[in-house]
Fold each of these.
Amino acid sequence: MIYLDYQATTPVAPEVAKVMQPWIEEKFANPHSPSRWGREAAAAIEVARKQVDKAIGLKGGSVAFTGSATEAINWALKGTVEKVPKGRNRIITLATEHAAVLDTCEWLAGQGIDLTVLPVRHDGRLDLELLARELDDRVLLVAVMMVNNEIGVTQPISEIADMAHSAGALMFCDAVQAFGRIEICKGPDLVAVSAHKIHGPKGIGALWMRKGTEPAPLIHGGGQEQGLRSGTLSPALCAGFGAAAKLADERCTRDYDHVQKLWKAAVHALGHGWKINGSAAHRYHGNLNIRREGLDAARLIADFRDIAFSLGSACASGSGRPSHVLRALGLDYRQSRSSIRLGFGRYTKQAELLDACHRLAKAAVEHEKLDA
Ligand code: PLP
């Protein structure tokens, strides 16, 4: 299998699996128990917390572990609304956000929050003048992702955070696709990340919270995470997340350079006739979302069982619905059904990527002929 779906998930790093193993096979103690074993597990979790915090790289806040980035996002949005100062009842977000943000915002709108979903430009970037016009003293939160999961386009997070703060609002950033790949921009008050996008295990995410902006708890119970999030933590998942974060931090430049090289090689190998969806410059280059006139993307995926790639997000691929992100760029139904996403990273070999690109490009030409 040639795995080109790095935005959906990433292979677990061998170093991560090794760190997790003893916590699965031998060390089963509850990290919240006062026994020696329990304290040992709790200490391992604190090491992991520091590793994730360091890799996030922001100052003046703390990390709380969650069951996923989806949970961290729900917590950040709903918990901030719960603590809202009087008179602030508006959330601003973008049409290209992940479903975890958009659906949570829609749910909050059903509870009485005034929701503004801003459009993006054709290149997928937010028009900052539009945001400036929208910001007022009723806005409590601006929620914008750093790297889009479907098209890889980046947003100017620091500028957005500055603008939000000037209006007295908080800034939440979904940094799931940025974390471990590019440096997280300074400025946000709340940042959601996920382990399985950085060669860590599935089933664990985290919320970074600037001191003083911690959201109200979403999950109630034993209060294990600083009294803010309940549930017994998994030492194996936490240790795995920590190891993945440490590795990503250490390999940051090497992984980034590798991805830049792969991007250039892939674009060259695909040849003419492809258009890049979203800005080619303002993006993370491990995400190559492209379209081609006449291409039947769903058929291409079905035809190439030995190449794992996708139509956009894993969610969009599953539903059969055209991607809301591509529609937000102004692509029509046909264009979005002619788009594919190739995602690559640390363990992708250039030769396998080129092999996949050559075969996909050849098949796309065949589709064109059939379509003519
Ligand atoms: N946000 C973005 C941008 C994502 O790509 C994903 C995962 O697909 C999520 C949030 C949700 O992450 P998790 O799988 O940890 O819930």
Amino acid sequence: MTATRRMRILGIETSCDDTGAAVVDDGRLLSHVVASQEIHAEYGGVVPEYASRAHITLLPRVLKQALDEAKTRVESLDGVAATLGPGLVGSLLVGIEFAKGLSMARGIPFIGVNHVEAHLLSAGLEQDLPYPFLGMVASGGHTEIYHVPAPGAAHRLGSTRDDAAGEAFDKVGKLLGLAYPGGPHVDRLARQGNARAIDFPVARLGGETLDVSMSGLKTAVKLLIEREARPMPDSRRCDIAASAERAIVTALIERLSLALDRHSARALTVAGGCACNTLLREEAARLATSRGIPALFPTPALCRDNGAMIAYAGWIALRNGATTPMTATAIPNLDSFGRG
Ligand code: KG4
Ligand code: ZN
């Protein structure tokens, strides 16, 4: 089936600790609602059992709000998309089974979506995405660079060898005594600090690889902080945050620059939670300008985990004629993109 008529898709995202639902009509966003689960903050990380239980409680409410804000009803939907993976198995299952239930009840297609692919395409929700483009997904679980020649096709060029960029931000935040997740707090402190105060190692791997490595930075920050005077003055914390941020962002921008040397692209996109980072946005915009192409970022609320990107990726898949069988289930380490 290759549909050409307008399609209204519901997207459900429950891969980690955000419960998201959104309605996308013909690729344009009508509504999106995300309930972030507060419970994990006191544990300094996501507790999988609590996350699945919270999704069960939150999902019906989030869905109702998304439908109300879109001024639509379940009866008007043409398909239901949900994250198939990667993610936490229990959390994924809640969203998948919920979506399948709706799809069966309404007799409309179910579309299982790859969470990373959804981040990758998410800039297209708010602006036209020119193909081919070069995209980076930098989040708490992923740091990957892709060349995307056409909707529904993507080639991975590089990824992290160890920690994801968001994980690196969060670990730096934890070492600085900041609340979880640390990324936004490191960003805030970094704006008041001197990014040249400390020369942290930039994750340069030998050779021509487009992979990055973040683990050396975490160790360097840890060793530095252990040697610092206590209590650490606020200005010093800001300098550490700014210098660590510079090391992370430099590693990412260098790889994007190499990727642009090798692949033709009509735009550069950065998505995932770390695309909220002030310095990363500035540097990616500067890089794109130097290559004469636009830098496209989703608005911050759509950089983080959300149902809108799932609905959008589901819409692209359905437009290409792809649906997912009801026998499909959660794939915690899902690594393949594409149709079906
Ligand atoms: O995409 P996302 O919401 O969830 C995952 O799929 O992981 O990304 C969350 C990650 C966290 O590690 C968080 O600290 C990071 O994105 N993050 C940031 C900023 N905002 C969120 N990192 C750096 N600077 C920010 N402003
Ligand atoms: Zn994500």
